[in-house]
Design brief:
single chain, alpha/beta, seven-stranded parallel beta sheet, binds NADPH dihydro-nicotinamide-adenine-dinucleotide phosphate, binds magnesium ion
Length: about 375
């Protein structure tokens, strides 16, 4: 790589964000050009002092004011609000935008980056679940490259890169096989899930991640969202996407081709690989960290249990219905998980709330951005009561 690449990290204070900064620290050739956060200005200040970005964007207006005072002695310019995040995401000098904001809040900044034709390292899967048609169409129009950071989708992207001839895409791929760790409740019965506590849901066996995605991993909603994410990223129909529970999280996902060849990407569970790959693609750079030792544990694969993990079934249902139904699924899940984390509803209420919202929703076939945002807001408001 001959030229320094300017990286914008949306959600720099989160799990994806901090690991993206570690990649920048460990690799030459990348610069933290701009960082965004929502509320954690203490960590953001430390990051600013360590990485000296040109811009920092804080979506919470009050916190932005506080940060401005704290870092008055530095050269970093502080922007505020969603507009600030959109501004750094679409800045003319930005090369790659890592979207590490959690939830629907990532939609507008991601779209701003796509509209500006940036390379996206996409972690914020909720954006594709809720507005994938709009985002992918815009990316096609502007030439914005969307490189997945989600480990499964990065694995699929890497497996697809094995094809030299990029034509016949639709007929050559016969199936995408997403692997799932199964989360902390694998093997449990419906009854055993009744009294799950927040601490139990936050105890993921293989990955250390933000709270929302950790709960989604426990309920298998994460895998449901990932099916919808894969549908958008790789433009494959729902019936070509399947899920296998793979407890060891070594095989990160696979593609089965028309000639029955299955190509997979394997590695130790470490998000820094997909983050780095999104920055360096199509090149690969050496990386610190554990090499995979396949002699250490057997690899196992099981079918998921959608009767117990109803969130997975609901996500598949929403994907088959299409239109605005995936927006409702995503919005209701986000609102319900937040209530669960705040101790306001029980674990099994998450799925009940999502189901109720889906059952009462009048589907819009091709919702516009304003309609998507309005549906999200309505669902949020209803569930918060
Ligand atoms: P975290 O909760 O660790 O971090 C979330 C980030 O988003 C923080 O920087 C937070 O800012 C910011 N944020 C929160 N609310 C808002 C808001 N309203 N507006 C703007 N920014 C906001 O999440 P993760 O890093 O775990 O996940 C981020 C995304 O990446 C999710 O979509 C997740 O599904 C996806 N992902 C994550 C993986 C992982 O390993 N963590 C793996 C695969 C995908 P602050 O802290 O300052 O409030
Ligand atoms: Mg994943």
């Amino acid at each position: 790589m001959n030229q320094m690449k300017n990286i914008v990290i949306l959600g720099a204070t989160g799990s994806i964000g901090t690991q993206s900064l570690e990649v920048i620290e460990e690799q030459k050739g990348f610069r933290a050009f701009a960082l965004s956060a929502h509320s954690n200005i203490e960590l953001l200040e430390a990051q600013i002092r360590a990485f000296r970005p040109v811009y920092a964007a804080v979506t919470d207006e009050e916190k932005a004011k506080e940060l401005k005072i704290k870092i008055a002695d530095t050269d970093t310019k502080v922007l505020s609000g969603v507009e600030g995040a959109c501004e750094i995401a679409s800045h003319p000098e930005a090369d790659t935008v890592i979207t590490g904001i959690v939830g629907i809040a990532g939609l507008r900044p991601t779209l701003a980056a796509v509209e500006a034709g940036k390379r996206i390292g996409l972690a914020n899967k909720e954006t594709l679940v809720t507005a994938g048609d709009i985002v992918m169409a815009k990316a096609k129009e502007t030439g914005s490259e969307i490189i997945p950071v989600d480990s499964e989708h990065s694995a699929i992207f890497q497996s697809l890169a094995a094809r030299v001839n990029k034509e016949n895409y639709e007929t050559e791929i016969s199936r995408i096989i997403l692997t799932a760790s199964g989360g902390p409740f694998f093997g449990k019965t419906k009854e055993e899930l009744e009294n799950i506590t927040v601490a139990e849901a936050l105890n993921h066996p293989n990955w250390s991640m933000g709270a929302k995605i950790t709960v989604d991993s426990a309920s298998l909603m994460n895998k449901g969202l990932e099916i919808l994410e894969a549908k958008q990223l790789f433009s494959v129909p729902m019936d070509k996407i399947s899920v296998l529970v793979h407890r060891q999280s070594i095989v990160h996902s696979m593609v089965e081709f028309a000639d029955n060849a299955v190509i997979a990407q394997l590695g130790t569970p470490d998000m820094k690989l997909p983050i780095q790959y999104a920055m360096t693609y199509p090149e690969r750079l050496p990386m610190e960290g554990n090499k995979l030792d396949l002699t250490q544990k057997p690899l196992t694969f099981d079918l998921p249990d959608p009767d117990t993990f109803r969130c997975l079934a609901l996500a598949i249902e929403a994907g088959n219905t299409g239109g605005s139904m995936t927006t409702v699924l995503n919005g209701a899940n986000e609102a319900a998980v937040s209530l669960f984390l705040d101790g306001k509803i029980g674990y099994t209420d998450i799925v009940k709330n999502i189901r109720r919202e889906m059952e009462t929703h009048q589907v819009i076939a091709n919702p516009a951005l304003e309609e998507i945002l309005a549906i999200e807001a309505e669902v949020y408001k209803r569930l918060a009561k």
